[in-house]
Write a structure and sequence with these properties.
GNAT_dom, about 160 residues, Aminopeptidase, alpha+beta, five-stranded mixed β-sheet, 5 helices
Length: about 160
C-alpha cells in the first residue's frame, strides 16, 4: 500500500468533492433511467452534481471529525465518512468514494477497515452501510458483499400524489 489513511483536514475539501463527483458520475448515469422521473427530479432538481456537492460539503463541514481519507503523494484518492450510533451499538459507513483511477485496488476496503476499527474503539458491535439497488450501484454492492456485509431486505416505494 503506497498511500496512507489519515484524518480529514479542511484543506482537503476541494479534492474530496472533486473525486466524489468523478467517482459517482457513472452511478448517476445508470440511476436516472432506472427510477421514475418524478422521483429523480424531486431529489435532484438542479442536477445530481449540485445535490451531491452540497451533501458532501455538509458531511465534511459538520462531521469532519468522523472522516478518514486515503492520501497518495499528497493527493486524496478516497474517503469515508462514518457515523456512530451508540444507542444501537452500531456504526455506519455513511459515505464512501474512491477516485476512479484508484478503484479496484483495495482502497475502499482499507478505508472501511479503518472506519470499522474506529467503531470498535468506540465500543460498537456492528456496522451498517446502505446503497442503491439500481445498476449503477452494482459495484458498491459487490464491494460491501465482498467485505462480509449481509444484505438486509428493504423495500422503498414512491408514488406521485394525484
Amino acid at each position: 500500500m503506497s498511500y496512507e489513511i489519515k484524518a480529514y483536514e479542511p484543506e482537503m475539501e476541494a479534492q474530496v468533492v472533486a473525486l466524489s463527483l468523478e467517482a459517482w458520475a457513472p452511478v448517476f448515469e445508470k440511476l436516472e433511467p432506472a427510477v421514475p422521473g418524478y422521483v429523480y427530479h424531486a431529489f435532484y432538481p438542479d442536477g445530481w452534481r449540485d445535490r451531491q456537492t452540497a451533501d458532501v460539503l455538509q458531511v465534511l463541514r459538520t462531521e469532519g471529525e468522523h472522516v478518514l481519507v486515503a492520501v497518495d503523494a499528497g493527493a486524496v484518492i478516497g474517503w469515508v465518512g462514518l457515523r456512530l450510533h451508540p444507542k444501537d451499538r452500531m456504526g455506519e459507513i455513511y459515505i464512501l468514494a474512491v477516485d476512479p483511477a484508484h478503484q479496484r485496488r483495495g482502497v475502499a476496503g482499507v478505508l472501511m477497515d479503518r472506519a470499522m476499527a474506529e467503531m470498535r474503539r468506540a465500543g460498537l458491535e456492528m456496522v451498517m452501510v446502505e446503497t442503491g439497488d439500481d445498476p449503477g450501484h452494482a459495484p458498491s454492492r459487490a464491494t460491501y458483499e465482498s467485505a462480509g456485509f449481509e444484505r438486509w431486505p428493504v423495500a422503498r416505494y414512491f408514488r406521485r400524489l394525484p
